[in-house]
Amino acid sequence: MSIKVQVTNLNKNFGTNHVLKNVNLTVQSNEVVVIIGPSGSGKSTFLRTLNRLEDPTSGNIVIDGTDIAQPNANINQVRENVGMVFQHFNLFNNLSVAQNIMLAPQELKNLDEQKAAAQAHHLLKMVGLEEKFAAPIQSLSGGQQQRVAIARALAMNPDLMLFDEPTSALDPEMVGDVLQVMKKLAQQGMTMIVVTHEMGFAKEVADRVLFFDDGQILEEGTPTAIFDHPQNPRLQEFLNKVLNV
Ligand SMILES: Nc1ncnc2c1ncn2[C@@H]1O[C@H](COP(=O)(O)OP(=O)(O)O)[C@@H](O)[C@H]1O
Ligand SMILES: [Mg+2]
């Protein structure tokens, strides 16, 4: 096993709002980490610091041996290596499905059009949307658009994927297909950090679950430990609310 991500004493302030409080986390290569926790606890901010969409206030974020928290870190390289999928897919509505996937590799990696198209075809097959290659984005359902967003992120060949509540804006019948793609990715060995409240997914796919509360990791463990034997009262309370038991 090798270490993919090592976060040390990470802090993030928005003005006087201390959002991340000395977060420490080590993620191994090929590990799937699921983050749960109440709204406003800093989950999104944490993911966003991992690819420098937010600048950390202090601390270290070492990914593949490079501290990306340093002010002089090569942000473009960070973004190439770390793919991110958001709740709202942020696709280009004026482009086709394939064009959305081909854009970044062509512009940032100088991939020629033929190779980019072949790669888009391959990725669309992986996410089960082969037949949508030339379709306009608007003709796709939310679940299909989210799978295109995953394919787009994968087109840069990232070695770490971050997912921020990828299914929470979807109609319930769309959720399964997206989780299925994420599960496949995990089985292929992708290192993944996933914010989600899909407990079934967490139980089946996660190696480790982290409970975020008030900018800190209050508890972490295997899915069984976290869901069946939660220790911290705040985690117990949270699970009672989320699982409606
Ligand atoms: N860009 C921002 N500017 C100011 N405050 C922010 C910003 N992004 C997040 N916050 C604040 O940080 C806290 C954590 O937010 P967030 O990371 O989105 O939590 P979560 O994803 O767990 O719901 C909240 O108090 C939120 O208002
Ligand atoms: Mg969030």
Strands of the biggest beta sheet: in what spatial order?
6-7-8-3-9-10
| Proportion in β-strands | 25-35%
Overall helicity: 25-40%
Spans where pLDDT lies below 50 across 5 or more residues: none
**Count of strand segments:** 10
Mean pLDDT: 95
Question: What gross morphology would you assign?
Answer: globular
Which radius of gyration do the C-alpha atoms yield? 18 Å
Describe this structure in words.
By secondary structure, the protein is α/β, with parallel strands linked by helices. The protein has helices spanning 43-50, 75-81, 97-109, 113-126, 142-154, 172-187, 199-205, 223-228, 233-243, and strands spanning 3-14, 17-28, 32-36, 58-63, 66-67, 82-85, 160-164, 191-195, 208-213, 216-221. Strands 6-7-8-3-9-10 form a six-stranded mixed beta sheet, sandwiched between helices. A four-stranded antiparallel beta sheet has the order 2-1-4-5, covered by helices on one side. Strand 9 (208-213) and strand 10 form a beta hairpin. Helix 3 (97-109) packs across helix 4 (113-126) and helix 5 packs parallel to helix 6. The model has no long low-confidence stretch (mean pLDDT 95). The chain binds adenosine-5'-diphosphate and magnesium ion.
